[in-house]
UniProtKB/TrEMBL annotation:
TM spans (from-to): 59-80, 92-108, 120-142, 173-196, 216-245, 257-278
Name of the protein described by the UniProt record: Uncharacterized protein
Tree of life domain: Bacteria
Keywords: Membrane, Transmembrane, Transmembrane helix
Region (Disordered): 329-357
Length: 357
């Protein structure tokens, strides 16, 4: 039986998308629970707007840990059950990740571990996003952990060893890996915006407690908001860019991760050059360098998650006339066969004398 391996490192890597989702949702929910009013100004002399409902950091940490812990627990249980049933396909593990995230979401709603409550009317809708991210978690774990062959205890004959293959290979065309790679530009927006927003947070001791809490919340919420908007805007272009990078690398018969990183970086620079007339910056490097880094991340992410497959065999040829099965350099392909359709054409012609003019 071929099943997915149990690897703690792959388990931790697979939970990163769900961890990021829970952190982003908690921050946005806390900011949404703040009273209405202008965004506070930072500084020693700034008048901080009082918070009527401040969530304690311990409550946020406990809520985050419980949510992520339930995700990991349900995913581990379903993974062990899949191994027992000899289920190891990519689609099955995508479904396992989505089911684990939905089960964890339902349990957290029942035991009320949220630092803040969701508004009425969006409880079911809010579970869609964890389910989608759970699909990504399952795909990441399937690709990162790898497969192994185990003996079936109920079989009378010992399992045959796994086959070895040393023939030509190519990178798979995977829509799941393409979807994961498409969110890389949105994540890059968050990574670039977070340090800039943290520069505006007041230093401890230079402002009051309420001002400091408001500054931290907005410094985290604004990059998350930018990331969500960027995900909506760049999801389809990111998928098309990843598809172009994959096509470029496959056309050059490249299969290594470093090759895909290079193709992605080259594609990012090409996009930066194409957008140069619309670039508000005077230097092309200010746009080319970030685009190259994002493109390299898209290409590398796709290659890590897509996997490889054997090069397909040539397509079968449908034949109605066996006489046409001759090689390219056969003499029959360098000249045409003559078929006489009129019996009179085979008779020799008799020259008729011309009449005198």
């Amino acid at each position: 039986m071929v099943v997915v391996r149990t690897v703690p490192r792959a388990f931790a890597v697979a939970l990163l998308p769900l961890a990021f989702l829970h952190a982003a949702v908690l921050v946005m929910t806390v900011v949404g629970a703040m009273p209405e009013g202008p965004i506070p100004s930072f500084g020693a002399g700034a008048a901080a707007r009082p918070l009527t409902r401040v969530v304690a950091p311990d409550a946020l940490l406990i809520s985050f840990a419980v949510r992520l812990g339930l995700d990991g627990l349900f995913f581990l249980v379903l993974h062990l059950r899949a191994r027992a049933l000899a289920i190891g396909s990519r689609g099955a593990y995508a479904a396992i990740g989505g089911a684990a995230a939905l089960l964890a979401y339902a349990v957290t709603r029942e035991i009320d571990v949220g630092a803040v409550d969701l508004p009425a009317g969006i409880v079911l809708t809010a579970g869609v996003l964890p389910g989608l991210v759970g699909l990504i978690t399952g795909l990441v774990y399937w690709q990162t952990a790898g497969l192994e062959s185990i003996a079936d205890p109920t079989a009378e004959v010992a399992a045959a060893p796994m086959r070895r293959y040393d023939g030509p290979i190519q990178v798979r065309t995977s829509f799941g890996a393409m979807g994961v790679a498409a969110i890389v530009p949105g994540l890059a927006m968050f990574v670039l915006a977070l340090p800039l927003m943290m520069l505006g947070v007041p230093i401890m001791g230079s402002a009051g407690e309420a001002d400091l809490q408001q500054g931290l919340l907005f410094a985290l919420a604004v990059p998350v908001q930018m990331m969500l908007v960027a995900l909506l805007v760049t999801a389809i272009p990111g998928a098309l860019f990843g598809l172009a990078v994959h096509g470029l690398a496959r056309s050059m018969k490249r299969t290594r991760t470093l090759d895909y990183v290079g193709c992605g970086a080259a594609g990012g620079i090409a996009v930066a050059v194409a957008l140069a007339p619309f670039n508000p910056f005077t230097m092309l490097g200010l746009l080319a360098v970030p685009m190259a880094l994002v493109g390299a991340a898209v290409g590398g992410t796709y290659r890590l998650l897509a996997g490889i497959e054997p090069l397909p065999l040539p397509e079968p040829v449908r034949v109605s006339d066996l006489d046409t099965l001759v090689p390219q350099d056969h003499p029959a392909r360098s000249s045409h066969q003559v078929i006489v359709t009129d019996p009179r054409a085979s008779r020799p012609r008799v020259a008729c004398p011309r009449r005198p003019g």
